[in-house]
Amino acid sequence: MVDRQPYTFDRVIRILFGVVSVVGLFYLVYILRGALLPFLVAWIVAYMLNPLVVYNKRVFKLKGRVVAITLAFLEVLITISLLCVLFLPSIIDEIAHMRELLSEYVYNSSSIPFVPQAVHDFIRDNINFSELSGLLSREQWLSIIEESFSGAWGFITGSVGEIINIVSWLVVLLYIVFILLDYDRILCGFQRMIPQKYRPMLVSIGNDIEESMNRYFRGQALVAGLVGILFSIGFLIVGLPLAIVLGLFIGVLNMVPYLQLIGIIPTILLCLVSASDTGTNFWLLFGACILVFIIVQIIEDVFIVPRVMGKVTGLNPAIILLSLSIWGTLLGFVGMIIALPLTTLCLSYYQRYVIGADSVEPPDSPTDTSVSEEVQE
């Protein structure tokens, strides 16, 4: 039995002092949350850009990080511009076409074969298609642009609130640049702040978490992007309205396991509206969309995931759903994205440190597999 130290006056004072210090630290963070938020946002962005900076420095054989950081910003800007040039015109055309379909569906009383009229009545009564149509109109987008220009004019005329907002964004940008310049030094500085007694264990755990998150998140982001492109192509082939928008939306949902199934709901509504306007058989169009779901899922499971993510997590589907619920409740949508690597990591540490099962093989996880060379670069 472990001998417990007696609660002397000196020990009680130290415990109280420690509790007061922790509470005071949290209160200080709460007071300074407005000043700390730009730094936290900048740190997240810098964390995501740092691999690109390291890649530029290695490929172009640069000595300093200034040129590599500049190249990283230019590459991100060029990538976003190319995506806008390639997809934005098609998205605008699809939105305009969808607005016409919605307008026709609101006033179209014809029924679709094998679809009860009560279904149409329920949809028309519970969904405000006029408001949706207004959101998709060019006038609505023009009003948003006018509001943006009015905000810029408010900044020009000396609005204090607008000036503070602009300065905040500039501070975030400066934070990003300065963090990227001394990224490794800052990490070493954070490690030195940990007491020497706990530093090896905490640094080891932090490195494991970072490695797990890097491999899983980057690999899953690539998988989600490829899946979104495949869905967009498939929906374009079958002639579904808003094909690119819906495909990319399902790709984003694919960041969370099983969440892409939510995309079936807007798919049904789009099939219903398209069939009502064009006279296409609803069930044929819906069946073609379901076929797209099945084909993309097969391509994802057979070709994309094994080559990008390596082995599957090895977790039971019930455990996966439970981990998604727990981490989603704690951390929101971000928690659902990082639920699987955190769960596999917690199980591994539980087996290693709690029950001491060194001989028990932990479940296969992204921490045990390596992402392909293209993903790491």
Number of discrete helical segments: 15
Shape: globular
Distance between the termini: 53 Å
Rounded average pLDDT: 75
Radius of gyration: 26 Å
- Please outline the major beta sheet: none
- Percent range for helical residues? over 70%
Strand content: under 5%
The computed structural class is mainly alpha
Task: Flag low-confidence runs.
Answer: 151-160, 358-377
Strand tally is: 0
Could you state the order of secondary-structure elements as H and E? HHHHHHHHHHHHHHH
Q: What is the strand and helix layout of this fold?
A:
Layout: H1 9-31, H2 33-59, H3 66-107, H4 117-126, H5 129-135, H6 138-156, H7 160-181, H8 183-192, H9 199-238, H10 243-253, H11 264-278, H12 282-308, H13 317-337, H14 339-354, H15 373-376
Brief sketch in words of this structure:
Helix content is 78%, strand content 0%.
